[in-house]
Give the backbone structure.
Amino acid sequence: MNDEHEGAYWLIHFEDADIDVEIFTSEESARKRYEMCQVAWSCQLFKCQPPIEKLTVRQVEDWITGLLADAWNAQCNLPEIHPADKEEFCLAIHAAQNIILARQRKQEGL
């Protein structure tokens, strides 16, 4: 990602084998388009982050937490292959979240 897309919102939608990417500079316009596109396609909205070396540790931890939420949402949209898939994925997400929260508590001296 180059600097011109820092803070931008990318809307990725796909139908069958077709993938389309739209880039927005405004969160409001990106969210409106996201709501419209969900009706016809499977789509995902991402906020572009600056390169990781420009972020503070806390910003990286928050970014990772957001990625975990995105991963859970994507998993929920997959067809079920095994009855335990969602539960096992949920446990893995919670384990990763606990690691991030523990880091933050240690940094805050709690």
In short: The longest helix spans residues 85-107. The chain has a mean pLDDT of 78.
